[in-house]
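User: Show me sequence and structure for the first protein, then do the same for the second.

Assistant: Starting with the first protein.
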Amino acid sequence: MPLEQDDQERVRRAMEEVGADKTGTRLLVLNVSESQKLGYWTIICTVINRSVVIGMCALLVWLQFALSVPKFLLRNRNDDDSPAEGESLQCVPRSGGEKNFLEYAYGSNRLRKLRTTCMYGLIYVVLGNLTGNTIAFGTYCLEAAGISGGGDSLTRGLAVVCMTAACLLHASYRQGGIYTIIVIGIFKVCILVAIIVIGFVAMAGKSFGYGSAHGETIVNATSQNGPSNLAASTSFSHAKKDFGSYASSILFVIYTYSGNEQPFYVISEVIRPKKIFAKASISAVSLTIILFMLVNIAYLGIVSYDPELTIQCLSIKDSVDKFNPNLVNDVIMDPTRIRDKCNLDMATVFFAAIFGPGLASRVMAAIIAISIFGNVVVMTFTASRVKQEIAKEGVIPGWRFFSRNVTTPWAHLRQRFWPREGYEPEQSPAPALLLHWIFSMILLGATSGETADVAYQILVALYAYTIVILVGFFTASGFLYVYFFGEDGHWVERSGFNWGGPFPAAIYAAICAFFIFAPFVPPGEGSPYLNEVKWFIVPTVGLGFMVLGYVYYLGLMHVVPRLFMKNKVLIADREAIIVREHGEYVVYLEIVDASWETRPGSANESDVEMHTFQVKDNKKEENNKEEDSKEEDSKEEDSKEEDSKEEDSKEEDSKEEDSKEEDSKEEDSKEEDSKEEDSKEEDSKEEDSKEEDSKEEDSKEEDSKEENIKEEEDIKERKGY
């Protein structure tokens, strides 16, 4: 859909503005074209690939935030998308997920926003990856290949291959990465449906060639039914009694519940986000919850908790037909030793219990490896966008490099060999993908001193504790604050999505708050969590990263300016160019500029206002760096109002002057007319006076003549004439 003419003009001006910039500090970052944006089913497959089930409470919190912030001051539009009079605040979805939510909730001014960015950014840049899953990928690949005793080095080598392949896929062929997400997502759904069908058929008494089925449980290696997981009398017969084991177990369960946040990281790349995003996310929730519940019923109906099943698992791992009695006794006496011999994956044990050990377990291991690779591909695609958004704030070294998009090699090849008119080359955040890969390798190296199983547990638990629990708690708590106190109490009326109100956030915040402290409780004797990793390591490291993020912020605000920047402060400007697509406002491109500038009073937090977004014909005010005490959106509106008043005032003054001039001319004209009339009147009086004088003289002359005649007649009479 082509852009409106005024939108095209704004985009053109923005590109020219960056091209004419002589400083070279401004960076133009284009969003993906409309043809390359994610659709309804891609969003669903993204969620399914990242998790088998996601938290409904967390989803509703994320939806309310994502469809409501950030806000931009934009020109109003009519129903036909033509420009209208006036401006209003509009919610424009933007990639970044929790980064945007936390900055909005806790960044009431520039310094607080920067503090939030640093604390979240450090956690996500370092720990926002699935390095633990790549280790599991290596483990299952070796199991599927039938390689025993491959060692941790081979497992870690396959982990490097997994992460490198995912990063190269997205960097070289963006659309290919999306196709991979869709295909593996469909594949996962098919596997889950197969587990459900096979499990329920087996529970009904059908045998699949490995023993006969009896009611709710499959006969195990000893040809005896194990205790039923679905019977009330035996369901909790082997339950642990210590609080610490429950806390650690649920932390791993929460890891499988994570994944609802993935589509929010790339919401700017979703077509018509306000229309389809919520529907697609909720559809994914409904589908995955149904599948997850049915799969777990199938698992519980087939796989019983039984020492003989443990022995069977060992036989799968050792690829032997008969069991070692000494090994059996050791396992029964010390169940924690099972991890040295067997990966207790429910899907593998499920298929082994139905089809027997051997080929079935190897096939299932291959399926799980493919599923894990899809998981890593999704996380790599979304996490790289978050790290790109963090880089745009200027808080990491080389931010300009890590913020940019580059045209993919596939797009170059397509333009060279299959040129097509109107084709828009795809771009990818390749530098951000490089950043993602670097820290994944660092985490692999940091855990190289542990066995592959222990390294997996540490990395998975650390991700769950920091990204899911800590970040989730502050996001949900921030939403509660914004809901009741944000925007002067008008958040609900101005939000773009308001399903569930504050209740999902309250529930999610309470759960996360509990699990922030629960892992500090030590597990009881005999717990598998007691011998592998010390219980306090994961929560201590997780909280340590949050503290380290605050230290990073202090260094960025105080140490770096004094030692290297001559007391200058970091100022990040992000100007979003907003256009209309399919009746919705979307971000078309961004002009990013982060620089160190000298500003009076910058050390005083109250003197500096937070960096917000503004759009005034998509150009920022020139004085936005001198007037940080006012919000930029307010400044733009006030500036327009003042300009309008000034123009009206000038017009009125001009009219008044014209009126005065006309009045003056009219008065002059009247005065001249009056003078002319007076002159005419005086001339008339003068003429009348002259005429009267002339008449008087004539009269006197006639009288004189008459007197002369009379005198002559008298003389004649006296002489006798």
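Switching to the second protein now.
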Amino acid sequence: MPTCSFRFPFLWCPTFGFFVLARIIVAFILGNTAQCQRLALFNINSKAVGGIKVGASEKGNIVEFAEAVTAEPRAMEENKVSAQEKEKIVEGAGVVALEPSSSPSSAPSLEPGSEPSFFPSSTPSSEPSSSSSAVEPKEDKEDKCARIFLQIPAQFSEHGHGSQLNNYLLGAIAATFLDRAMILLEHPYGKPYAGGSQFGCPLDTFEGGFTAANFSALKTVDTIPKVREGFPIGLSRLVVHPEMLSRGCDIPCVDQKYTYDDFFHFAQADENEITCTSGGIKQNVLVFHGFGLLNFMSSKNSDGVALLEQMKRQREGAERWAKNMKATPLEAKYFSFSTDQNRWDCLLWLFHKSGFMKLQPWIERDIQFYLKTFDLPMSEEYIAIHVRRGDKLIKESRGPVVAYWKSQGYDDEDNLPKNYIPFVKYLEQMDGPEHCNNNDVGETEVLRRNVYVATDDPEVVRQEIAELPNHVKNDPYTLMWNNCYELKFYFSPLKRNGTFFHISGDGRKDNCFSRYERNIASMTDMEILIKAKTTIVEFNSNWGRLIRNLRVRINAIEIRRGN
């Protein structure tokens, strides 16, 4: 299925009761563009709302290629628990069901032949295990660690998940393109977040045993127990940085004894490339923080060509770049011939296939237990809609909101009926009544669809749904749409507004247990969005673009089969 974006020429293709707005890309391998399924090389099944133009002009947004795509998701297993169990799990934000892991950084392995799940928490078979006892030859490590890409994630720590993870993905793309080992330099422990991470504190964080009961009690206090030695901090508490990127290298410049502040100073300098040594071994290091990385991607070479443009079209070194992402020789060859958007989609697929951006095992565990509290039947196909309001209404979403209301005849930007795009606009992405089917006796076939709504403003969205016409059996959250679609809406069981997409804002003032609760709620919504049959997202949001990036899979069957 094709990509959804309002920036490019498009055609309409019906899929799962939705129209998909698609980019026309050159399918030089698949050839025939007359068939919707064969038009694109990558499987897409999503819709953008609001006609958002995505680019690098606004700080904090990932550059152009990080818009949204989707891949056919795997259905999640349905888990049933009692109402009493649900209440307990919601109270602890999904962390109450398991005791802490014995190891702070280990992850379970996939069964042979199984496919990695969203943010797979295991080491792919193609990647060397970081726990291997084999001693690497010194000269090999010297060569791999001579060129370092050092990324400092903390500058974006007050942003949401989408901004932080998109920036991490951007760093991985740059590091593999430049053929450098990528190392994460986290902020010193305790700066600036109590508990050591903007993503909060799972039970596994602390020394000693903790149960669900005393975890809930800890959420009400300002002090925290002693953090386990070596437990991940910063961004690394959320994701496992893979050896595919680090190449087994450590923090560089050991002989110079540079501090975190020294490296941050290098990242802010006009010249962020330094030369140093570790154990007498010479190293060349590029140091980046969040905004510096965005600027770097837009920087131009002596011919006036931006690095981003080089990445999109350059043939020289493209196969090596792909192999740095664990591509097979065939995949690397194909990648070298791809250009523009098709190359970015291929790149994202290679990262996904390699097992990049694995969740830490405690995050994966607590998401699964939190999912048990949901009423959404996850063993069935479902639609997911991302409705971002909150802080996005102030800046990033303001333009689309104004444009929408102008299209409805409201020209006074300071006196709009609402400061957001109504939820009904999202539903209008569905097929019209002309696409309804009749059965053998001429009656309209009713197509039942479960719809999950991920939003940071659930009460308002619930009210909007309740005010729509044609409700079924007086159920405020089930209605008929366009004569033949029976839509049943589901929300997260966590009641509080502002929870679903926010670890930012007042995070430094927040108790680390409350931050973790919000973190798990957000990541659970993310998993539901990624695994939906059809997803509607907003491309003006880092969250929406991240969802797209994590749903890419290749649609060329022969390449997928390795032929």
